[in-house]
Amino acid sequence: MLATRQLSSHHRPCRLAQTKRVPLRVQAISAPINTGAGECPLFQTRDGKIIPAMCADYGFRSGSGRLYQEGYGEVPKDVWQLAKDNYVHEFTQLRRSTRYPPADIAPPDGAVAKVLHAGGAAVARAFGALDKALEGAGVLPELAPPPVMSALETQEFKQIRAKLDKLELSVSDVIAVEHARIARTGDMASPAWVKAPFYALCFVLDVMYPKNKAIEKFWVLETVARIPYFAYISILHLYESLGFWRAGAELRKIHFAEEWNEMHHLQIMESLGGDRAWFDRFIAEHSAVFYYWVLIAFYLVSPRMAYNFMQRVELHAADTYTAFVERNRVALADIPPPLVALQYYYSDDLYLFDEFQTASRGVPGVPPRRPPCESLLDVFTNIRDDELEHVKTMVACQESTIAKDIAASSSSGGAPRHQ
Ligand SMILES: [Fe+2]
Ligand SMILES: [Fe+2]
């Protein structure tokens, strides 16, 4: 009768309220959290407020390997077992993506995108025919069609899915927000070799994702958004190990807090179904590995330019979320927040959340940022504001003052301030 979940971690920020709603149970791939009508988790904030959470987890990984859910906090298996599990699982999904392509992909707008879309569909059809032939010849095992989810879907599950599918992200909206920002505050300066990879990244994503694939686009963006911070940490660690440079240890803490924040953005997009398509997972995960080495090279050659590049990326992320929030404000306000967002923004332990707010953390008279999280509108507004915090930190990192300021504030008992 009660919604008290078995909590597996020693540090568990979530409080699920004592209600008629039943415990969180998650099933693989876009499953409702509970199968009974009206049985959705409720979340109790630190102040005792009850907030209904989203009923379902729409992600590919729902239930396995997801933060705060089953298996959370466990030690991984060995790499061979993990790789085998993943490739076996993904191979089936790859076959399904060619034989049973998603029916909800709208044709894109631009000419280049249209050509790529048609070309991609033709390649997928050819692979689908090949797969069928190999299956007929007994080379490949018989492929079951994708599971029919309707038997599991509650009314609320379907309603929210339908609302999520209506969310839109328009490239022209993002450009308008960007132009307005530049008119207000001026453009940032970067050398051409920093601008080139940034604009290439934006162009590819804009071409690949039509406006009705907002969550998918955000998921891809957030997958790669964490990578620079991980690259910076790797190099700082290497310098410490080699004895080259030890004065940047404070930076590693900030970059880890930023990466932890981006990981929650990613998990939020996953819970909204951003990683459902095999192609999106393939692109994002392989790009992330490539991107890591690019950022490693950037940081080795010029840490300042690596931070400059990341300032551009974070500004673009903030502009994109701003445009998305403005266009979908009414729809977002009507959708409950996913559980992972509630767990993060209402956590009992906000040390890492505070750690990346380098512009205001510990400043006398400035209260710590404690944003509300009562709807998907709050969630996306919070993410946008997080990105703006990352921008400020990247600016401070280019000024080479941040580590020094933090060290000084630690010894004086205060905290750094950056504008
Ligand atoms: Fe992010
Ligand atoms: Fe970011």
From TrEMBL:
Its cofactor is Fe cation. Binds 2 iron ions per subunit. The keyword Zinc does not apply. The keyword Transport applies. Gene3D superfamilies: Alternative oxidase. One of its GO terms (cellular component) is respiratory chain complex. It comes from Chlamydomonas schloesseri. Its EC number is 1.10.3.11. The chain crosses the membrane at residues 282-302. This is Ubiquinol oxidase. Its main location: membrane. It catalyses: 2 a ubiquinol + O2 = 2 a ubiquinone + 2 H2O. It is found in: Membrane.
